[in-house]
Every structure is written in C-alpha cells, then in structure tokens.
C-alpha cells in the first residue's frame, strides 16, 4: 500500500508540476508580495498537502466523483500560489489563473496527440525515445509542455495586466467557473475512455484542446474589452468637454455678430467725428469679426470663424469651400473635434513658414463617390 501511494503521488506530482509551472509563467507580470521566496515555499507545501490528500482520496474511493474532486484540488494549486505570493486585483489574478490552467490543458492535449502521431500508445507508455532512455524522455516531456506554456503566454500578450472594470470582473468570475467545470468534467471522463477506446480518448483530448483555446481567447477578450471601455469613457469625457467649449464659442460668436450688427448701423453717426479712413478701418474690422460664413453646417461655421480670428494674429489666410450638408451624418461633438483639431494643427504648421505669402490654409469639404 505505501508503494502504491508513492507511485500515485509521483504520477499526480507530474500533473501538479505542470499546473504550477504554467501558473508561474502567467502570474509572472504581477508584482510580488514581500518575502516572496518564503511565501512561495509555503504555498508549495500547501499544494503538496492538497496533492497528498487527493491521492489518498483516489486510492480509497476510485470513482468518477472522487476523480472530479481530485482534479479540482489540482487546479486549485496555482490559485493558492496566486493568492499567497502575488499582489494585484483579485479578478486579474483569477483571469491569469484561468489562462494558466487552460495552457496546461493545451500542453497535455498536444503531447497526447504528439505521442499518437509518433506511434506510441499512451495507455502503456509516454516514452518517445524508448523505455531505457528515461532522462531523455523526461527532458522531452518537460520541453514540450514548457514550450507550449511560453508560446501561449507570448501569443496572448498578457504581460502587462491591467485593472479590470466591473463588467470584466463579472466575466472573469464566470470564466473561472467555466474553467473549473468544462475542463474538469471532460478530463475526468476521458479516463473512462482510455481503457475502453483509445480513439475516443484522443477525441476527448482534441475537445479539451479546443476548449482550452476558447478559454484563452476569452481571457484575451476580457482584457481587450476592459481597455476598450476605459478608452471610450475617456474619449466621451474629452468630447463632452469639447462640446462645452463649442457651445461657449458659439455663444461668444453670436454676441460678437450682434454687437457688430449694431455698430454698423451707428457708423453714420460718427461721420463728422471720424475721418473717412478711420470709418473704413472700422468697417473692415467689423466685416472680419461679423462672421458671414455660411456652409450649411453650423458647427463648421463656428470653427472656421474662431480659426480665422486665431489665424489673423499670425498673418495666416484661411480659405474654405465647403458643402456643409455633406457632414450631416456626423454628430456635433465629433464634427467640432475633427475640424478644430485639424485646422489647429494646420495653423501651428503654417505659422512656422518664414515666407508670409505661403501662410495659407485651404479647406475643402465635398462629397466624392457618394
């Protein structure tokens, strides 16, 4: 009996080692807690206890439910390391744990299919180079699995995990349950096929590979969606601020236009008090500030008017030929952001020109091809 316990412990230690190795690779980017080596040693001791308990359970009650519990205990091993040794948001660590478990399952499935292609029956041996070359077989076994983990880790680009928003945290919780149930149950059932039908066992391995790949894709998607929602929230805030800026500019322009309109009617009263050249200069100034730009797009009118005021100070001429109706499909804040930034960048570039005659900005808005 002690020999059987030792044999089962060594076999299951191989699986545990794969889970721990994969988990450490995916948890690597997280900041480590104080006394990391000591914490890691303590976590490995706890994992060894879980493994011993799982082996004893299987030897005493070798049924499908006990194999299921044993597999859950094995999957919990990298989670223990994650909780004890690494800092960071709990849901970030859960997502990386799921990725590590899925990568381990991919490694196991790939190795099983590799043995099949090399003509080795996994039910009797996992040796590739013959039973006598024990060291070389184990080295090949380790290299294949670790290579799968490293390639998966690099392909997923999870090296800089970010804090997750609320929807992503919910997704991570669901993913953790899926990872536990949909990987554990088929993995346990595959042991039933192993003795009865090797072909069914391999089909189950292919299924586990596909499921693990799907879980890894979800892990990547959760991070992408979280970052996308965060970026959109920032963009919405920027656009809201630009909308306020646009409304303020429009209000100021309306006031200027109204004042210029009133002053134009009062210029005749100054005919005896000002010279003709002074009155003409006032008229030119009012004509400039009293915007008469009409492009059929109110937003574009406001941006062009304020841009012309800015450009005039640097001796820049702005010409515009615009079909404002062609912009009717765009929202106000998007229009303002687009043209305000584009014309602002053009002004910054043109005012650096030493030749005043080249300080010209031409703006054209038209439909092309519908």
Round the Cα radius of gyration to an integer and report it: 35 Å
Name the poorly predicted regions.
Answer: none
C-alpha end-to-end distance:
82 Å
Classification by helices and strands: mainly alpha
Dominant shape? elongated
Helix content: over 70%
Mean pLDDT across every amino acid position: 78
Number of strands: 2
Trace the largest sheet across and list its strands.
Answer: 1-2
SSE topology string:
HHHHHHHHHEHE
General description of the model:
With 370 residues, the protein is mainly alpha-helical. Helices cover 74% and strands 3% of the residues. It contains 10 helices and 2 strands, in the order αααααααααβαβ. The protein has helices at residues 2-27, 36-60, 64-85, 90-117, 134-156, 166-196, 198-266, 276-289, 298-313, 332-350, and strands at residues 317-322, 360-365. Strands 1-2 form a two-stranded parallel sheet. Helix 10 links the parallel strand 1 and strand 2. Helix 1 (2-27) crosses helix 2 (36-60) and helix 7 (198-266) runs antiparallel to helix 8 (276-289). The longest helix is centred in the middle third of the chain and has 69 residues, at 198-266. It is elongated and about 115 Å long. The model has no long low-confidence stretch (mean pLDDT 78).
């Amino acid at each position: 009996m002690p020999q059987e316990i030792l044999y089962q412990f060594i076999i299951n230690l191989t699986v545990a080692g794969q889970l721990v190795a994969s988990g450490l690779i995916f948890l690597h980017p997280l900041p480590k807690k104080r006394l990391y080596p000591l914490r890691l040693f303590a976590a490995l001791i706890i994992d060894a206890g879980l493994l011993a308990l799982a082996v004893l359970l299987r030897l005493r009650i070798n049924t499908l439910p006990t194999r299921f519990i044993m597999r859950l205990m094995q999957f919990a091993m990298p989670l223990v390391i994650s909780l004890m040794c690494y800092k960071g948001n709990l849901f970030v660590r859960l997502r990386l744990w799921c990725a590590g478990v899925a990568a381990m399952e991919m490694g196991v499935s790939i190795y099983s299919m590799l043995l099949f292609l090399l003509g080795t029956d996994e039910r009797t041996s996992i040796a590739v180079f013959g039973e006598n070359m024990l060291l070389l077989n184990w080295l090949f076994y380790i290299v294949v699995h670790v290579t799968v983990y490293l390639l998966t880790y690099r392909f997923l680009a999870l090296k800089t995990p970010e804090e997750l928003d609320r929807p992503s945290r919910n997704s991570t919780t669901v993913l953790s349950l899926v990872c536990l149930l949909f990987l554990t149950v088929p993995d346990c059932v595959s042991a039933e096929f192993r003795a009865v039908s090797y072909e069914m066992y391999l089909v189950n391995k292919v299924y586990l590979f596909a499921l693990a790949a799907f879980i890894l894709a979800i892990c990547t998607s959760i991070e992408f969606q979280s970052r996308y929602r965060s970026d959109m929230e920032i963009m919405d805030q920027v656009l809201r601020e630009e909308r306020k800026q646009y409304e303020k500019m429009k209000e100021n322009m309306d006031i200027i236009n109204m004042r210029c309109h009133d002053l134009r009617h009062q210029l005749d009263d100054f005919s005896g008090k000002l010279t003709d050249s002074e009155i003409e200069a006032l008229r030119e100034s009012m004509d400039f500030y009293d915007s008469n730009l009409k492009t059929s797009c109110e937003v574009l009118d406001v941006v062009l008017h304020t841009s012309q005021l800015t450009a005039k100070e640097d001796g820049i001429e702005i010409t515009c030929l615009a079909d404002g109706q062609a912009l009717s499909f765009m929202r106000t804040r998007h229009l303002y952001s687009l043209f305000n930034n584009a014309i602002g960048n053009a002004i910054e570039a043109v005012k650096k020109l030493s030749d005043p005659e080249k300080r010209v900005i031409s703006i054209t808005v038209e439909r092309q091809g519908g």
